[in-house]
Amino acid sequence: MKTRREFLKTSGGMVLGGLFLPYLTEAAKVKNVGINLYSVREPMLADAKGTLEKLAKIGYKEIESAKSVKGNYYGLQPKEIKQITKDLGLTLRSGHVPVNATWQKSVDEAAEAGQDYLIAAGLPSRGQTIDNYKKVADIFNKSAEDCQKANLIFGYHNGGSDFAQENGQTLYDVLLDNTNPDLVKMELDLGWAIVGGGDPVQYFEKYPGRFPLWHIKDIKKDKAESTEFGKGRIDIAGLLQNKKKSDMKYFFVEQEEWDHSPLESLQYNYGYLMKLSM
């Protein structure tokens, strides 16, 4: 088993195998790496400012918050996290919140925090049926109008179950087909889309302009759990080559489970990305 020192050393000095070499000469280096704060939810709850400082030191630039037991910004006020991130050279770009009774409060806080996007972290009503996804589409259309009034862009972050089918129709497609393409954008979680049976590239081609945000993660080969980049079944390097096809604006690293500590895993993932291109 690697020591912690060996693990961190590897994250900063990874050598890519021949599989990825073609990409190094075909595209620009990865930059402006984002992080979804759910990846460091426990450290954020314990010390939000200190954790943001550590993420900035690693090299992350774009921040996506996520609702917690302490609110949408891990106990920080909207103006407070706006100033902290600015001082650290970070940009608070987006946030994950539920579409529920506190929705308008979340919209108001996002506007005050100065972020660009507000993302529904899950479906506001349960049911893996076409009828429910049409109902959700109506809710999302209204939510997007609320965001537009506040100069925010609304989006939805998928899970793997969104790619289930009913009567031959993929539920995620029902959602895309029944929402306003100008107002309702998608934050495609590439890992869970693939695990659920979706092909991200096909979606980029079928629904142009709908995917300005990505979540990138690797998934273990033997179970549906996230892992450090390069250790699982997701072709991170290959997917990054589709940035232009997707018209992707920002992407966020997300890792829900760890073999090491969250910050060690995120250090490793950042080092991995620095060896790739897009």
TrEMBL record:
Pfam families: AP_endonuc_2. Residues 52-256 form the Xylose isomerase-like TIM barrel domain. InterPro entries: IolE/XylAMocC-like (IPR050312), TAT_signal (IPR006311), Xyl_isomerase-like_sf (IPR036237), Xyl_isomerase-like_TIM-brl (IPR013022). PANTHER family: HYDROXYPYRUVATE ISOMERASE (PTHR12110), INOSOSE DEHYDRATASE (PTHR12110:SF41). This is Xylose isomerase-like TIM barrel domain-containing protein. The lineage of its organism: Bacteria, Pseudomonadati, Bacteroidota, Cytophagia, Cytophagales.
